[in-house]
Amino acid sequence: MRKVELLVPASSLEVLKIAVKFGADAVYIGGEAFGLRAKAKNFTKEEMAEGIRFAHEHGVKVHVTANILAHNYDLEGVREYFEELKELHPDALIIADPAVFMLAKEIIPEAERHVSTQANNTNYGTFNFWHELGAKRVVTARELSLKEIEEIRQHIPEDMDVETFIHGAMCISYSGRCLLSNFFTGRDANRGECTHPCRWKYSVMEEKRPGEYFPVYENERGTYIFNSKDLCMIEHIPELINAGINSFKIEGRMKTALYVATVARTYRKAIDDYMESEEKYRANMPWYLDQISNCTYRQFTTGFFFGKPTDETQIYDSNTYVREYTYLGIVGKTNEHGCFHIEQRNKFSVGETIEVMKPNGENIQVEVLSIYDAEGNAMESCPHPKQDLYIKLTVQPEEYDILRREEHEVVPS
Question: In 3D, which of 249, 252, 242 has the Cα closest to residue 297?
């Protein structure tokens, strides 16, 4: 059976290492410029170099986003940026703009060029156009059905890859090209600064009654008319593979390490199980569905894959998301006293029961035996985020395991 790539996002060096450990075949990251997640932490040049080295040591590829829609004043900076990137040896660049594409071809010809979904790639003629210019891969527009993707696969060269988003948040605008953020706040979504106004509450105003605002009621809380459910295709791995998709892409370059680990681990097992046998994949479906709901999400949909979305694809009564676990931290190295280091992300206490989440699929309940600060002072709890701590549990975890606490709650987005 044809091998497919699991492509996982990383917002930071820490998250990149988690993506690698929890099952990614490739990760995609952004530098400090020219990507479409300007509000994400993103990578410095030094972090990018370390991340690429770490990934390559584990047999994982790194794709770097440079997918802004460039203005004249961007182009010289893009050239300088690519000249710096050349020294770091990324495996691929993800690009939306033709001018940026040609600069990448000129400056880093050894890196594959992947055409971003932002370029509105909706037909096989477009795929062939980019292939003739030297693209190795094109990311499908999210508005395509599986039938359309299969038709594209049948009309493009065998050595060209098809990449498709299969999990994560869905932008309400066509192929992510949204003007709302720029209009309302002056922050351009197409240059990496989206403020997500699609999640806001709206009213309507009749043309001849200026100043009279009529709420669009769904219930007493109003309605969120642009608020899409999250995409989830964990139940449809066979259909995705049969459509000829080479790379399964996870959305979420602003997500936490817990989110990335949860989604990567679940899809990794689902893909591997299906490659072994469809019976095993079907038998393990309850586990996939349980695990994929352990990270934050806004209910699930299959998007456009099986036809145009209906009214069931939207969330009308709130802009909240479900959070079933709280992220506590990543297990670091163990000291001479048998305590491991973490940079704490949320409060927990001595005597509390938490969970160790392991890359192999295990989730182990443990008790917190002791907490020490960086100077070795004992603590009953750790209330301050990003504290450097040393922890002892009833079970000794391994480096890159994740600590989390079960919550089952609904929180504002």
Answer: 252
